[in-house]
Amino acid sequence: MFKADFKWDRPLVKIASDVTGGRDGQLFLAQQARILMDPYVPASQEEVLAQNVKVTADEEKGGILYDSPYAHYQWEGELYVDPKTGKGAFYDGEQFWSRPGKNYKVPSGKPLHCSDFPHPLATSHWDKAMMTARKDDLVQALDNRLKGRE
């Protein structure tokens, strides 16, 4: 008869982190996701939203921050307006601006329309669009990295 007792000396979160490459693995995964998302991000000719991106990671997760003032509105795909004026923005011939002292807007129910230039696949919720179309590529990239084939 054989009896064995096992005691894990590390938390399961730490074991999972080690298997997926820890912070470096999470950073790699977030960077790859950002690259794969790019064609789905709404972009003007200047591509400000698509280029103003910060990728971060810790031991448990990676993050991608689109750091433009209008990023949330683009991601939602809905026109947000000043609750008092009902306008999305004012335009003075050179730049768009909001009413002074107001730093929030409300959904209007009107969809935003993405230009198909220079990103023909641009859409709201671009993270979900990328995962629908390219999830296998993302998983394969991480698998290749973990197996030393990147």
Q: Which strand order does the major sheet show?
A: 1-2
Helix content: 25-40%
Number of helices: 5
Strands, count = 6
What does the overall shape look like?
elongated
Instruction: Average the pLDDT over all residues and give the rounded result.
Output: 88
Beta-strand fraction estimate: 15-25%
If you had to describe this structure to a student in words, what would you say it looks like?
The chain is α+β, with helices and mostly antiparallel strands. The chain is 37% helix and 16% strand. It has five helices and six strands. It has helices spanning 12-19, 22-37, 48-51, 71-76, 126-146; strands spanning 53-57, 62-66, 78-81, 90-91, 96-97, 106-111. The strands form three sheets. Strands 1-2 form a two-stranded antiparallel ribbon. Strands 3-6 form a two-stranded antiparallel sheet. A two-stranded antiparallel sheet has the order 4-5. Strand 4 (90-91) and strand 5 (96-97) form a beta hairpin. Helix 2 packs across helix 5. The mean pLDDT is 88.
